[in-house]
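Internal QA ticket QA-208
Title: Verify multi-chain structure generation after dependency bump
Assignee: T.L.

Test input:
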Amino acid sequence: MEVRKLFYEDSQLHTFTATVTGCTTAKGGYAVTLDATAFYPEGGGQACDTGMLADVRVLSVKEQGQNIIHLCSAPLEVGAEVTGTVDWDRRFDLMQQHTGEHMVSGVIYQTYGFHNVGFHMGAELVTIDFDGFLPPEALERIEDAVNRAIWQDLPIRCWYPEPEELPRVPYRRKKDLPWPVRIVQIPGIDTCACCGTQMKRTGQVGLVKLFSCVKFHQGVRIEMAAGKRALDILCRTYQQNKLVSQAFSAKLFETGQAAQRMNETLSAEKFRVTALEKRIFSQIAKDYAGRSLAVHFEDSLTPGSLRELADTMAETCETAVALSGNDVSGYGICIISRHCDVRPIGAAAVAALRGRGGGKPAAFQGSVCATREEIDAYFAAV
Ligand SMILES: [Zn+2]
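Actual output:
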């Protein structure tokens, strides 16, 4: 007997009663069949439902031939009448994404003639692939048209046209399909072959937000979200923007400019610091002129600046050792010479001072876990 697909009769049905027609052990649980079900099996890009059958968890649902298999956490008695409850928040979210996707695909098809050639519902975003290039300004226009159709709260019709009616239905499809074909129609927006569950009215989608559009194969890939999912992402983005606004003391809708200004200021500051360091480093180098071994500590240098310091010192002395850091977290060390291979000097130093490092004959760089006193004593002895 063919199972009654209650999810097609009423996509909003989330509690139902049915009779158990079969129960066998299966990988990961028990394969339960019913004479009727509101559990949607995976298909058409839409994930399957989960929920409860009596007091047993429905882990996943799959269509197999004429049957729909409910993978359950425990066995159910064949012949028993059970109450099924679909995890409604999950299904509602999946339907918001699915109907939203049809609306976006329909508007793009109507406006640009591009076909939806791929559709994936991710954990966060939905991606749709199209077989043509969209201009950058298109996204805003598509989003606007879709949301206006959502607010018009249009009725959505799902039906199987009779064989003689089907050729007169101009519907979108990925390939030619044999009769019977299930059609989903959103008036003025889209007519498409689809086996998924859909909202009854466009208003239930709530909103659609398009997040990105990038080149993909011979066309573009669009990232979108609909309904509560879109609202959640926008809320999280808003929270982040609030933090940025506080950090920059900028108005909520001027954080972009504030970040740009901060970047420019940072670049100018880096430039200024480098110029100042250059002057200070050559002064330091003068102090060590003529020494065979010069060891110098300087506060809070980046690894790049530390190397610059050692390099400047090496212009006036034989072997330059520059260090930066503190006794608690250790010191960065850079050894440079224009006269000898510094690798053995560096290797011996990091071995004695609990550190590590490496380099080339002219320059050795690493770190040591020792106090300034220990480092000074070590180099005084070599
Ligand atoms: Zn569909």
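Spot checks passed. The domain at 92-235 is CATH 3.30.980.10 (Threonyl-tRNA Synthetase; Chain A, domain 2).
Status: verified.
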